[in-house]
Amino acid sequence: xxxxxxxxxxxxxxxxASVALAGxxxxxxxxxxxxxxxxxxxxxxxxxxxxxxxxxPTAKMAAAEAGTPQEIKGETGKPGSDFMxxxxxxxxxxxxxxxxxxxxxxxxxxxIDYGGNKSPEFLTCMHEESAVGMxxxxxxxxxxxxxxxxxxxxxxxxxxxxxYNAWCDRVPVIIVGGNDMDAAHRPxxxxxxxxxxxxxALVRDFTKWDDTPVSAQHFAxxxxxxxxxxxTPPYGPVMMSLDxxxxxxxxxxxxxxxxxxxxxxxxxxxxxxxxxxxxxRLLSLAExxxxxxxxxxxxxxxxKLLVELAELLQAPVVDQGGRMNFPKTHYxxxxxxxxxxxxxxxxxxxxxxxxxxxxxxxxxxxxxxxxESKIKAxxxxxxxxxxxxxxxxxxxxxxxxxxxxxxMPADAEATLPALIEAVKAAIPGDRKAAIAKRGETIRxxxxxxxxxxxxxxxxxWDASPISTARLxxxxxxxxxxxxxxxxxxxxxxxxxxxxxWPMEHYHHWLxxxxxxxxxxxxxxxxxxxxxxRDLGRFSVSIQSDGDLMYAPGVLWTAARHxxxxxxxxxxxxxxxxxxxxxxxxxxFRNRVAYLGNDMAPLGTSIQNPDIEYHKxxxxxxxxxxxxxxxxxxxxxxxxxxVAVVKSGQPALLNVWTQPR
Amino acid sequence: MKNAFAFILTGLVLGSGPAxxxxxxxxKIAYVKHGCWQCHGLLGQGSIATSNGxxxxxxxxxxxxxxxxxxxxxxxxxxxxxxxxxxxDLADIYAYLQSIPKPPDANSIPLLKQ
Lengths: 660, 114
Known about the structure:
The structure holds two protein chains of two kinds. Chain A is an alpha/beta fold. In chain A, 39% of the residues lie in helices and 13% in strands.
């Protein structure tokens, strides 16, 4: 690889090998002859190998283990990592949330010094999962991908859950992992623990593409290619293993002139014209068509297209909320129970079509649940789903297999214009009055449904701990006149924001984690708030307790980089999904669930002691208040917090809530 | 005071057997101890996510139907058989639920009226 071409008489490998010897007490005896031989001609003098000792390491030994070795002098030519920065800068990547690591120190240095810390701007993160989560949330608010750098082994292991969430949520994240591949010359000890043959293997099952470039030109091609692949629907994370030597050594062009390929985005895949026509025929002749959407709208235009199709058919739309697909204020926005009456269902970018038309009751101590169809026999099913184009084998995010009548492995938003035109052409003239009448019936059902939701929200309105409906509506009262964006709502507050807030614009709701990996909410909120800051929007999150504690260091990142975000906590003091799971199993086994001193089965509560999240946030530079248990105190606290966020700072309210 | 009043009312409504001696106060403790609050909320308000939106505070069911459901539930809700929930605790829980005041009219709440 890069090292094989290196003919430099005095190179960093020889220097590092010699320095590392001092710290690698356990390996010194075996490495010494090799290192000594390699440095015999030109390397700096090598200290004698240290004897095994229980004494604390000397300053030099500690520096060799944990510090950054000095670079050798005399290297000439442009560093490979400077050229990499040239490549990265062509791709309009605004930020780089990142936890630092030695395996990409050369690129790090080039980004902030040679690249001027702009496009991308380095954002200091305290966990790789936070960095990926921030990139995840940022994309959903800005529509542009971010990149992150991770340490090749341990850093990527930290990042893995975040990458899986991005994969399941169809979000592009550009991940570059530093990896010191040259086993003959890389420093022994820690850097070798942190190297691997193929770091990409760890995430290959849930990334769209990966590569390991072996030259600067290879990097240029692969980096542009990976951004292109990541940002072509269906979107997804991509991974590059980047050799430390390739970053660090001067470019050797070998007579070839380096170039940077021009980025040209790919068009999204559109549904086959015959399949579109058949779908239109079924929909236009249906008595009770239903549209179900999960991630159908990729952009604000997706909402407009869905409204056009729904109005054309006067068909109810069930928005599963993977994205903001359909205005909640539109009378065709309906709850899932309309599926039971459908004779034709079109599902667009559904993560689980089986789950839309079937019910599953998780039952019994043996885990054998009850499967039930939710639809009438003979109901025709149409699917437009681009994810079929990237289905992989290992991780089961493809869900159960559902037979459909028309299957289009295509991007829904890109297919909608053709489908709309086909439906217009297919609706018989004598069906138009019946379709309009259908709309009137749905309009009345929508109005009744709104009243039912309000009635449900009024129950336990004055409860302490505070009801989730009250939490959500008190928050709404303080932000309703702003250009708000609900960036995350983790921990389940009974979907109150989606049921009660007048969500109409694409940025009003950014969807959930995708893979349901807990720990998404806090970093994704900060990432989305970063995008919204630049777009002049007000960001609010419903932040759950368990989610925040996976990697709370992201709070510091928000304060450090002045990212305004209102985090209103849904603090129900437990991993509530698990609370119910353990209770359920105890009941089926006819046993009393052991609570210890908590309210919930042992191991599921976050109590005794209660975490003072407001103090945690304060300690990392946030304005914070809590715990708020009385609903009468909520409004004033929210007002204060909103003022803080409007001034450009993050604010957190620790609110004790009902379980769901 | 409100609870005591509700307790008397509940006793009258239940009318017979173990339910007659039911205590809303004890029922509140049993409701938490046996994990009912986990899916139904501390005031029986329910959740669309965990109880399909069913409100049990107060319950619309008679004690007999309520008790039969709790003992034999076998779908989304797991059963509470006598071995893990005594008849006395079950009656007390019902009394507690019936003691919970009916919710206010949504239109009387400014935040919900809009």
